C-alpha cells in the first residue's frame, strides 16, 4: 500500500504541479494581506480535494454514462497529460490550464479566487481528473481506492503548504528557478502521458484482436 501511495502521489503531484501555480497565485493576490492569502490558500486546497475526490468516486459512473471505455479514456487522458507536460516544459503552465491574461485580470476584481480559477482549472484540470478516473477503474479493491483517496487529501495539504509559503518560495527560487522546476516536472508529466497512451492503445488493440 505504501508503494501505491508513493506511485499515485508522484503521478498526481507531477500533473497538478502546485509549484507552477505559485507565480500565478501571487499575480492574482498582489493586494492581499498574509491572512487573506493564507485563507485563499486554505480554501483553494479544500476545493481542490473536493473536486478531485468527486471525480474520482464518480469515475466509473462517468465512463458508463457517456459509454466511454477505459482504454479510450487512457488515450484521451494521456493526450491531455502529454499536452500539459509540453506546456510545462515550454514555460506555459497557466496558458495550458486556460488561465490567460484576461482570466488573471478578472481574478484581480473577484472577492474569492479559491474555487475559480485557482482550484479549477489551474490545479485540478482535465489531466488530473482523467488520471484519477483511470486509477479508480484500475483499482477495484476498496483498500486501494481508500489509499488513492488519501493521496488526494495529502496532495491537498501539500498544495496548501506550497501556496501558504508562496511569497517565500518565489523570493528564494525566483521566476527562473520555478520555471526550471516546472520544466523538469513537465518532462515527467510528458513521460506519464506517453505511458497512458501506450497502455490505452495496447488495451484497445488487444480487445479488437480478441
* SS strand fraction: under 5%
What order do the SSEs take from the amino end to the carboxyl end, as H and E?
HHHHHHHHHHH
Rounded radius of gyration (Å): 17 Å
Main beta sheet strand tally, sense and closure: none
Number of strands: 0
Q: What's the topology here?
A:
Blueprint: H1 2-16, H2 18-28, H3 34-57, H4 59-66, H5 70-89, H6 93-96, H7 101-107, H8 114-123, H9 126-138, H10 142-164, H11 166-209
Folded structure, characterized:
α1 (2-16) runs antiparallel to α9 (126-138) and α3 runs antiparallel to α10 (142-164). The protein has helices at residues 2-16, 18-28, 34-57, 59-66, 70-89, 93-96, 101-107, 114-123, 126-138, 142-164, 166-209. It has one domain. It is 85% helix and 0% strand. By secondary structure, it is mostly helical. It is globular, with a radius of gyration of 17 Å.
Note the main attributes of this structure.
11 helices, 210 residues, mainly alpha
Give a quick rundown of the structure.
This protein is mainly alpha-helical and 210 residues long.
Amino acid at each position: 500500500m505504501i508503494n501505491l501511495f508513493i506511485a499515485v502521489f508522484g503521478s498526481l503531484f507531477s500533473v497538478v504541479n502546485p509549484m507552477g501555480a505559485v507565480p500565478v497565485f501571487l499575480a492574482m493576490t498582489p493586494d492581499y494581506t498574509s491572512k487573506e492569502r493564507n485563507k485563499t490558500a486554505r480554501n483553494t486546497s479544500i476545493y481542490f480535494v473536493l473536486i478531485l475526490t468527486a471525480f474520482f468516486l464518480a469515475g466509473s459512473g462517468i465512463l458508463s454514462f457517456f459509454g466511454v471505455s477505459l482504454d479510450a479514456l487512457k488515450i484521451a487522458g494521456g493526450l491531455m497529460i502529454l499536452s500539459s507536460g509540453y506546456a510545462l516544459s515550454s514555460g506555459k503552465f497557466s496558458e495550458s490550464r486556460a488561465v490567460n491574461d484576461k482570466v488573471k485580470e478578472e481574478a484581480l476584481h473577484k472577492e474569492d479566487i479559491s474555487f475559480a480559477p485557482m482550484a479549477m482549472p489551474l490545479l485540478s484540470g482535465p489531466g488530473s481528473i482523467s488520471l484519477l478516473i483511470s486509477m479508480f477503474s484500475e483499482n477495484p479493491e476498496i483498500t486501494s481506492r481508500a489509499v488513492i483517496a488519501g493521496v488526494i487529501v495529502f496532495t491537498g495539504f501539500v498544495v496548501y503548504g506550497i501556496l501558504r509559503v508562496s511569497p517565500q518560495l518565489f523570493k528564494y527560487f525566483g521566476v527562473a528557478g520555478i520555471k526550471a522546476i516546472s520544466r523538469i516536472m513537465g518532462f515527467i508529466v510528458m513521460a506519464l502521458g506517453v505511458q497512458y497512451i501506450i497502455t490505452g492503445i495496447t488495451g484497445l488493440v488487444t480487445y479488437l484482436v480478441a
